[in-house]
Amino acid sequence: MRKIKEKIVLTRTQEAYLLSKINTIHFKKNDFFITPGETCTQIGYINTGLLRVFNVDSYGNEITNWLITDGELATEILSFLNQEPTQEYIQCIENTTMEYFTYQDLQEIYKIVPEMHECMKLINEELLISIKKYILSNIHLSAEERYEQLLKVRPKLFQKAPLKHIASFLGMTDSTLSRVRRKLLVT
In Å, how far from its chain's centre is CA 34? Predict the structure, then answer.
């Protein structure tokens, strides 16, 4: 609820209504939030935990597309917005607790709390900006610069995520990540 209240002003009645619609789910380490072919019906924020969004390439290699941790938005946005099957996996890297709305509940919420349209617009804009920055950094920044940027912007990932997933997320091999880390420790 805190994330919503940071974006829009709610009356007490609206806040009580939204609280009645919030669901909580607990995942164990290695559980899947979603797998290819399923349609995502949940959008929410991670209370505690870590999720990894990934695909498997034609050679069977897992490619980490995104990492989601405490206080961050968790959904498969294309599947959720279009209510169509996903092509991605989202797996829990550690025990994870999430508060969320279902797609159906959100459609009802829009009718009762029209301000939620603005809230979702702002959430989607933040997500779009993060994804665009990630894409541009993979194009324009060196391995060292990508590592330093991620360390600066999302330091919690380095406390929680296995380095192999961070390396994949940064578009580098495990050995390249090791070299980058060693180089930065020396300088």
Answer: 13
CA 75 to chain centre: 7
Q: Residue 187 — very low, low, confident or very high, per pLDDT cuts 50/70/90?
A: low
Tokens of 119: 């809230």
Mean pLDDT computed over 122-128: 92
- Is 76 strand, coil or helix? coil
Of the candidates 115, 93, 117, the residue with the CA atom closest to the CA atom of residue 168: 93
Q: How far apart are CA 160 and CA 166, in angstroms?
A: 10
DSSP state of 40: P
Rounded to a whole number of angstroms, the CA Rg of the chain reads 18
User: CA 82, CA 40: separation in Å to the nearest integer?
Assistant: 9
Strand 32-34 with 42-56, pairing? unpaired
Res. 37 pLDDT band, cuts 50 70 90: very high
Cβ atoms of 44 and 99 closer than 8 Å: yes
At 63, give phi and psi (nearest 5°).
-110, 115
Q: Is the dihedral of CA 56, 59, 64, 65 positive or negative?
A: negative
